[in-house]
Design goal:
By secondary structure, this protein is of the alpha+beta class. Helices cover 59% and strands 12% of the residues. A hairpin with a 2-residue loop joins strand 1 and strand 2 (39-40). The two termini are 28 Å apart. The relative contact order is 0.12.
Amino acid sequence: MQVRELTNAEEEIMKVLWKLEKGFVKDVLAELPESLPTRAKPAYNTVSTIIRILEKKGLVGYRAYGKTHEYYPLITEEEYKRFEMEQLMSGYFDNSLKKLVSFFVKDRNLSLKEANEIIDLLNRQKES
């Protein structure tokens, strides 16, 4: 399956579906925040339309119960994170982990404690 970049609205819906694992449009709508800083809670039809777009993109499946549908994600959140990281790495850091870490060290003031935690994580990964 080809993972594609999601719009902000699509990603918001996917996060809810990942959390719920499956649900009807009303369930997804109920999980969305009451109000967001930039806009109000979307309408039922808006959420339904976004879910159908995600279905057409091959990211969401459904089970039909008469005229209603129960939706579920076809990709995991981990798969999407991996896709996003690959996009970030290739688009901004020439696929270099060193450049990515260097960016965080310089731009985000990575602490020595955090750096040591990363080194420990890399060492544990190498051992397994």
